[in-house]
Amino acid sequence: MPESSTAPVAPDRTAGAAVPRAVFLDLDNTIIAGSSALAFARPFARAGLIDRATVLRGAWAQLLLVLAGADASTMDTLRRRMVLVCQGWEVARVRAIVAETLQEIVGPLVYPEAVRLIEHHRAQGAEIVLLSASGLEVVEPIAELVGITRFRATRMHIEDGRYAGEIAFYCYGEGKAVAAREIAEELGLDLARCAAYTDSITDLSLLEAVGQPSVVNPDRELRAIARERGWPVLAFVRAASRRDRLFRLRDRLSDRFAAGARSGDDAGRATEGTGEDTGGAGAGGPWRDPALLGAAAVGGVLAALVAGAAVARSARGGR
User: Fold this and answer.
1) Rounded CA Rg of the chain
2) Cα–Cα distance between 264 and 261 in angstroms, integer?
């Protein structure tokens, strides 16, 4: 399916689709490049809320999410770690840090295509709703930054002005679909006449709940489902972004893997009954197998990142 990076018009599911009454937007990798929660890791570290090791673990987790996508187990692990890390933080201090660094940290991460998409749907009269698994104290100012007044985010239990170590509402997975249904009921809207945009397979229930689902920079599993169901696939890109180059690499590998699987199936059918053995890798032999090429390429990316970090440390040590 062709992809668009400009989103000049709403990518309706069918040519005759009605203008959506409400549009539900994911935040991470849909409106902004990367994770909104992890984006503030460095200012949180400077403020003494987290240590360097936590920052590095967060960066590593984000890299894996970009390359491999997020499944329920991965996201549940990240949720538990988030709760443990944040327990005891002063909510007012978190809000202050986010407010002070919002333009510096988040401003450059906003996809211009996402802003145009929001403006387009707003001009059509649609209600714009932001749904994010990140914490309310992070999501609320980002929503204001991009001009969205209605949103749902993960809410933590708070005691005496501090995070108590428990989640009151997790706006993730089925939680996003629940939030969309609640908002639609509040506004008197039919979800069949609403649209949704997201990048992650974990938001499949949200996409299935609306009449006009679209995917943005999708992970591998969601990309495959979008192809099967004929959902629009949008590619949002920031100039000179290493993260976006990783997205493009991931998508190319996914495309090659899908094409290789199809050609392998075709070759298998063509040689059926002939006694020929393709070795499971198609006509090009095992070293043309997209799965192997993909693994090698991802390994190369990781190796390059590690080497780059080592060079940087060496350069600092030589000063």
Assistant:
1) 21
2) 5
Is 76 a catalytic site residue? no
- 28, 203, 219, 244: the catalytic one is 28
Give the E-state strand segments of the chain in sequence order: 3-4, 22-26, 127-135, 150-159, 162-169, 195-198, 212-216, 233-234
CB contact at 8 A, 198 and 216: yes
Encode pLDDT of 21-63 as tens digits.
Answer: 999 999 999 999 988 877 888 888 888 887 655 554 544 455 4
Q: How far is CA 110 from CA 11, 27, 115, 211, 244, in A?
A: 20, 10, 8, 26, 12
Whether the model clears a pTM of 0.90, i.e. scores above it, the answer is: no
- Rounded CA-CA distance 238/244 in Å is 7
* CA distance linking residue 241 with residue 168, whole number of Å: 35
Instruction: For residue 198, list its beta bridge partners.
Output: 215
Whether 26 is a known active-site residue: answer yes
Contact of 49 with 89, CB cutoff 8 Å: yes
Answer whether 38's CB lies under 8 Å from 148's CB: no
Residues 183-236 have pLDDT tens digits of 999 999 999 999 999 999 999 999 999 999 999 999 989 999 999 999 999 999
CA distance 257 to 235: 19
Catalytic entry in 12, 26, 71, 244: 26
Quick one: 3 exposed, middle or buried, by C-beta within 10 A (0-12, 13-18, 19+)? middle
* Residue 86 in tokens: 């944040």
* Parallel/antiparallel/unpaired status of strands 212-216 and 195-198: parallel
